[in-house]
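Materials and Methods. Structural model of JmjC domain-containing protein. The 383-residue sequence of JmjC domain-containing protein from Aliidiomarina minuta was retrieved and submitted for structure prediction as follows.
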Amino acid sequence: MFKLDSAVFDAALFLQQDWQQRPKVFRQAFPQFKDPMTADELAGVALEPGVDSRLISQQDGKWDLKHGPIEDYSDLADSHWSLLVQAVNEHFPPAQKLLEAFRFLPDWRIDDLMVSYSTIGGGVGPHLDQYDVFIIQGEGQRRWQIGERGEYTSVVPHPDLKQINGFKADIDVILEPGDMIYIPAGFPHSGDSLKPSMNYSVGFRAPTQAELLSALADYALEHDALTARYQDQGEWPDKSWHINDAAYTQMRQLMQNALNDEALLRRVCANLLSQNPRPPLMQWPQDPITESGLLRYLQQYAYLQRAVGLRMITTHLDGQLHGLVQAQAYELDSSAEQLFECLLNVNYEIETQALLPFLTTPLSRQLLVQLINEGFWFAVNED
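The predicted structure was written out as tokens:
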């Protein structure tokens, strides 16, 4: 289990004083830190289809970037390259446990765990991120330089690599295993390995206005919502080819009315935030199960496993508590809520017998049946 040292990292104080405000270094935030994976295991994940991985190298000032699957490292030098793999928590279960330490923030805010292995001199150059990030130092040593927010000129040394021109470093530190650095969105930074290094980056999801409006439009089109149409207000332009201010005012009011629909807005946002941008790897039962056959079905298997990449959240919709999984909403009574919370706190698998105490109401049994039939959870026996 990975646990932040409360003497080093006070979550409440951090959220009050530092979160999204300033970078900060936490020495030995994870005392006696042990890497949840090796460089070879990371390379194995980078081989898997559907995994987002990049190999970034730099020799004599020339940058190169290759997208995965990464199969061959033989043409690389002994230094100045990095392997970066996104969403490792979704493909290597032991790494998921590292994210548990960051649940002082809402689950829906956590995007993924990016893991990198860098040789001496390896890095991606000075750059900006549009999201907050915690970086935990594993094996090795890495030097981090961080500057102030500001206007920086972009540089594109490779078509798939965006950097910025040099910045003045206000923080210049070397991280040792177990150290952690927090970098808010928009702060320029650069990291270079002094020894072969493993780094674990916890990135956070922050929807843009465009993403939220797009989700609203998609939902409205799918569910035939927001059908009110433009109506003239009797203020006509002097020229037939001119759009006057009254028309813009009316169209703005139509859009504001859409955003003022509280029930619709909650539904749209809950759907968006319960979905993983990387679709889960679902597994469906050979034949759909029924509520009457649920207990018999569970008796045949030792475990239920969680689909890779599954997102589970709860919220109130129309005054009723719901659990949401991949934009599928399930009404929850007290037993179904306990079952849902039990499942969302499972990283990988749970014994089927441990679920029986929660199946005391029709809603709780229906919930589990639906989660299995949708492929979100699937039954397995030991090998």
